[in-house]
Amino acid sequence: MELMRQALELAPRWPLGRLRLGEYLESAGQHDAAADIYRELVSDGVEDVYGAGLKLAALGHAPVPDSPPPAFVAGLFDQYADRFETALVERLSYGVPEAIESMLAGAGLLGAILDLGCGTGLMGERISARASRLDGLDLSDRMLSHARQKHIYDSLYQADLCDPPADIRARRYDLITAADVLIYVGDLAPAFGLVRSLMAAGGRFVFSVEAGSEGTGYSLQPTLRYAHAPDYVAAELSKAGMRAVEARKTVLRQDRGADVHGLLYLCTAA
């Protein structure tokens, strides 16, 4: 910590250095001091690529935002892309694509599919053989680069989950997937509304969330991921004109050796 303080004496406006000092202070239990640094970073008015606003909210020093800054999410996964599959599948026992594939096991051919937050294509690999068309959308250019190398998508787009390009908006999909994606969305209303507008007649929507406690709506966790309560998910699905035909409890992945519990939903139009 002292070395970082010394470095910041030489470069006091260094954003990443200030963020790291805040994290060191937070780890040391000095939450108020850490919050002061995060607050300064937010007030600088620059694009919040480091998630200082999220960290401030996670400490309870600011309201929980409806969603993280897109620049933060894109930057996070751009940095992670080259080691993403090794880290997630081999080290963190990531099983969401496999679990979603299991939910769809008896469905036969799946028709036109939109893979929201497609990442490197782990979900796409599981379902591409049953798709008449497979489109993917993700914020991270580096993740999309890895997905492109798999040659399983008809089209890939770099865009925010809730702001897809006109090409996507013009199509209707028989299946829309969001595998381990909504953990980076707080307020589900915009995402669910978009999904409903893109569903073909008889279409389905399958997604995962980290499990929150009943009555809590959505909450921002220390990991800077969101958890969603089952009653909140059900209410937002209903508002969007959808309903869950199946919901399963599952372990999404591991984090620091502990299971991360979540829920899988298979939905149709109400």
Written overview of the protein:
With 270 residues, this protein is of the alpha/beta class. The protein folds into two domains: 62 residues; 181 residues, Vaccinia Virus protein VP39 (Rossmann fold), CATH 3.40.50.150. 40% of the residues lie in helices and 26% in strands. It contains twelve helices and nine strands. Strands 1, 2, 3, 4, 5, 6, 7, 8 and 9 form a nine-stranded mixed sheet that branches. Strand 4, helix 11 and strand 5 form a beta-alpha-beta unit. Helix 2 runs antiparallel to helix 3 and helix 3 packs antiparallel against helix 4. It starts with a helix and ends with a strand. Pfam families: Methyltransf_12. One of its GO terms (biological process) is methylation. InterPro entries: Methyltransf_12, SAM-dependent_MTases_sf, TPR-like_helical_dom_sf. Keywords: Methyltransferase, Transferase. One of its GO terms (molecular function) is methyltransferase activity.
